[in-house]
Amino acid sequence: MTLNDIIAALSVVINSIPQALLALSVGFSAFPTSLGFAVGVISCMILQSPIPISMQAETIALAGSYGDNIREKLSVVFWSGIIMTIHGITGSLNFIVDLAGDYVLNGMMAGVGLILAKIAIDGLKLDTKMVSLISIISALTTYFISGRNLVYTIIISVIVYSSYANVMKMEIGKDIKKEERKLSVKKTVLSKKVIRGALSLACLTIGANIAFGNITVSLGD
After folding, report:
1. Rounded-to-integer distance, Cα 21 and Cα 126, Å
2. How many CB atoms lie within 10 A of CB 71?
3. Cβ(12)–Cβ(215) under 8 Å?
4. What is the number of structural domains in the chain?
5. Residue 107 located in a structural domain
């Protein structure tokens, strides 16, 4: 294990913090999510998978935009998970990727990038717009100065805007409601809106997994 490996692991963990805040801001709960991450970590250890588990801002934003309440939002995530599970068990995901071809896959990855760019631009419209602006500038600067090194881009940008927020005594996420650490079962629903959201999220997940998979592989190089 090299110093770059340690920094890469830290960058993925640090990068999950703002994404977790995004998930909380659209109505998802931290405690149940942490249990899901625990299952993922155990599975990676058993399967000896080197790919890190992280939240994905684009899927969070899409899932949070569908549904008028938490039941509909969770239903979108649940049915999308069922769709992706079927793809994984049957091996049809590889068939879909091969069938799509390089042009479609590149378009999917570009689409994921556009969604993330929109999230960054939307951040400029909030009360904490200076944090978003500093994050964008520091990330772009580090990316080109470091020779397009994603490890340093992630960790330096997070450190810079976090330091600014602390110096300015900004309370990021102050409007997020506190949640009780207890589990509650919510019955899933099925409607046209939920089906449309589940299919959209499943399609985005395929593109995001390809894009994020390439990024995490480059982090480990």
Report:
1. 14
2. 14
3. no
4. 1
5. yes
Q: Give the C-alpha separation, 221 to 216, whole Å.
A: 9
Cα 198–chain centre separation: 16
Per-residue burial over 187-201, b if 16 or more Cβ lie within 10 Å, else e, is eebeeeebeebbebb
**Is residue 211, in this structure, part of any structural domain at all?**
yes
Q: Is the dihedral of CA 27, 29, 30, 33 positive or negative?
A: negative
Q: For residue 158, is it within any domain?
A: yes
Whole-prediction pTM: 0.67
The structure tokens 């580090």 sit at: 142
Kindly report the number of other CB atoms within 10 A of residue 205's CB atom: 22
pLDDT along the chain (221 residues), means of 10: 69 72 72 77 76 68 76 86 86 78 77 79 80 88 85 82 80 59 75 87 76 57 52
Q: Look at the block and give the residue holding tokens 């899932």.
A: 63
Residue 172 contacts residue 19 (beta carbons within 8 Å): no
